[in-house]
Amino acid sequence: MLEDVPPDPFADDPNDPSSALGDLDDAEPLTAAERDEAITDLADVEVFRSLLEPQGVLGLVLDCPECSEQHFFDWELLRGNLRQMIENGQPQVHEPAFHPDPSDYVSWEYARGYVDGVIDTEERH
């Protein structure tokens, strides 16, 4: 319930540390090309998940160009981020995976290659 939410300790504080994040409501809309790319990525994630989840893969690992570290995303978080980008122009705020086992995740390139291999195999038969 809203009455259980504590007041913002930084309300009206000009030194609010979250001010560096900007206003989350001021997201720039995606261009048509960016939106099409996000829709394609969402479709890819659905295919990746349908083929890789039964193999024990929990999601994808992505290299972050901003921090030069790997980020581990489970399937639902990937889907949610892409949907949020399509609808609002930016991904949702999320908690990183807690001590993920890297062997449970694959790269986008690996997932794409796996799907291509499955398609090639099916076309031969």
Automatic annotation (TrEMBL):
<protein>
    <recommendedName>
        <fullName>DUF5319 domain-containing protein</fullName>
    </recommendedName>
</protein>
<dbReference type="Pfam" id="PF17252">
    <property type="entry name" value="DUF5319"/>
</dbReference>
<feature type="region of interest" description="Disordered">
    <location>
        <begin position="1"/>
        <end position="28"/>
    </location>
</feature>
<feature type="compositionally biased region" description="Acidic residues">
    <location>
        <begin position="1"/>
        <end position="15"/>
    </location>
</feature>
<dbReference type="InterPro" id="IPR035165">
    <property type="entry name" value="DUF5319"/>
</dbReference>
